[in-house]
Design brief:
39% of the residues are buried. This protein has 3 domains: 266 residues, Rossmann fold (3-Layer(aba) Sandwich); 133 residues, Isoleucyl-tRNA Synthetase, Domain 1, CATH 1.10.730; 47 residues, no CATH class. It has 475 residues and is of the alpha/beta class. Helix content is 42%, strand content 12%. Adenosine monophosphate binds next to helix 1 and strand 9. Zinc ion binds next to helix 7.
């Protein structure tokens, strides 16, 4: 079954695939807009990053870990970061480094895989300036009276395709409407001219024909994607608030600069709410991960709670949902422990299909709540069988499949060591004799020795270079 995901551009569920699986060089390219590092990210932000982490994990399961390239940026220069540096009277880099470190620590606590590349806006000024110069040369951008550079919206007739903004309220306004050095109010800044009173010492030399200043927010992603993933990427994601204008503007910039489709697939996840309104810094209605850990909740429970609702539906956050998450994780832990302590009669080294309904739900538009529902009903089946009630036999493949499920969700469960039965001298001697007989191709005595071992409760697992001894179930 294919991995399918809602595409915000076509508003349909579409299969995610590598463009050319026959090409060994070809990787699936995935870009997720990252955080603005001026304060601790709240758990609303982390809802988006955790959902994207599950997506990354599913892509790895689908295409192989080496065939997925995941890039997520750090916005380390914009109004908010500059504003915070000014407020604290500290250098911009000191502020952004501090909050980048906190972001990384929280991501690690939430068990999010690190992206393969995590580029910063300040580390890519040259790339952004180059892109702006191309856009100016092509007539898609112009220098405003204030020395800033603006994207000329009218130069890109497809503007609005992602957000259907034209159908809604945006009218491409005429030049006379300008009050801000732009030809048209809907034109947006690619380069912001230096304003000493606002920007302090934050400035770089601008594109040819423009003054000193700093890049606008949208160009950052376009330039970093071009550099690290190429002109066309397979998947671009972010929270729903980024759809307009951020992603619409990214499409305009990249399309006009590169002349090719920017992203093959767009995915936007919905917000985390508190009391019916979106969790946000500006509203002050937010929890950070540290707030919740201080209250005694685990980061694992926060991760679970953030995945408990459908990613494309708003999710109301409550402390009760964390209580529920803690107990759900406890049940999963019990299941995992029980399975790990079974001595299996089989030696599967690949997953069974027992957890297929979980993967089916995840693969159909990342339906995490349905997947969790399926996981708990399978858990109930397994527990019944373990209590001796009739049911599908439990195999080593089930344990392997459960571990795959845990990887997909990014749940890390505690493990107590499984005590291993030590083979007696007598058993090891039998095994040695059997191995020697097998090497000498004396198959009849080898078979007889294997039968003796089985009767004694041991199984011998042959490999090319040797063997291992495993106790049989009930031994
Ligand atoms: P920011 O640090 O503000 O640039 O946001 C980082 C990411 O968090 C973006 O993808 C936003 O769309 C996302 N985001 C912001 N607020 C929320 C929220 N309440 N729930 C879920 N995601 C959010
Ligand atoms: Zn972006």
């Amino acid at each position: 079954m294919a991995l399918r995901l809602h595409d915000s551009l076509t508003r349909t569920s579409r299969e995610l695939r590598r463009p050319d699986p026959a090409d060994p060089q070809d990787v699936f390219t995935f870009y997720n807009c990252g955080p603005t590092v001026y304060a601790a990210a709240h758990i609303g932000n982390f809802r988006t990053f955790v959902i994207n982490d599950v997506l990354r994990r599913l892509l790895e399961l689908e295409f192989g870990a080496a065939k997925v390239k995941h890039v997520r940026n750090l916005t380390d220069v914009d109004d908010r970061t500059i504003g915070q540096a000014k407020k604290e009277q500290r250098p911009l880099a000191e502020i952004t480094q501090k909050w980048t470190a906190k972001f990384h620590a929280d991501c690690d606590a939430l068990n999010c895989l690190r992206p393969h590349v995590e580029p910063t806006a300040t580390g890519h000024i040259k790339e952004q300036v180059n892109m702006i110069e191309v856009l100016m040369a092509k007539g898609n951008a112009y220098r405003g009276a204030d020395g800033s550079v603006y994207f000329k919206l009218q130069s890109f007739p497809d503007y609005g395709a992602l957000s259907r903004i034209k159908d809604r309220e945006l009218k491409i306004t005429d030049a006379s409407a300008d009050s801000d050095h732009k030809d048209s109010v809907s034109d947006f800044a690619l380069w912001k001219a230096y304003k000493p009173e606002e920007d302090g010492d934050v400035k770089w030399p601008g594109p040819k024909g423009a003054g000193e200043g700093r890049p606008g927010w949208h160009i950052e992603c376009s330039a970093m994607i071009k550099k690290h993933l190429g002109d066309t990427i397979d998947l671009h994601t972010g929270g729903v608030d980024l759809l307009f204008p951020h992603h619409e503007n990214e499409i305009a910039q990249s399309n006009c600069c590169n002349g090719v489709t920017f992203a093959r697939h767009w995915y936007h996840s919905e917000h985390l709410l508190v009391d019916g309104t979106s969790m946000s810094k500006s509203k002050g209605n937010f929890y950070t991960l540290s707030d919740l850990v201080e209250k005694g909740y685990s980061a694992a429970a926060v991760r679970y709670a953030l995945l408990a609702g459908h990613p494309r539906k708003q999710l109301n956050f409550t402390l009760d949902s964390l209580h529920a998450a803690e107990s759900a994780l406890k049940s999963l832990n019990d299941l995992y422990e029980n399975l790990r302590h079974v001595t299996f009669a089989d030696y599967a080294d690949s997953p069974s299909d027992r957890f297929q309904p979980v993967f089916s739900a995840l693969r159909e538009d990342l339906n995490t709540p349905t997947a969790l529902g399926a996981l708990f009903s399978i858990r109930a089946d397994i527990e019944r069988t373990m209590k001796g009630q009739p049911g599908k036999q439990i195999t080593k493949g089930d344990l392997i499949a459960l571990e795959k499920v845990l990887f997909a969700f990014g749940f890390v469960l505690e493990k107590t060591p499984v005590p291993k039965l030590a083979a007696t001298q007598n058993i090891t001697t039998l095994a040695e004799q059997r191995w020697a007989a097998k090497q000498a191709k004396d198959f009849a005595p080898a078979d007889k020795l294997r039968a003796d071992l089985t009767a004694a409760g041991w199984s011998m697992l042959d490999r090319k270079d040797g063997y291992s001894l495993e106790p049989l179930k009930n031994n």
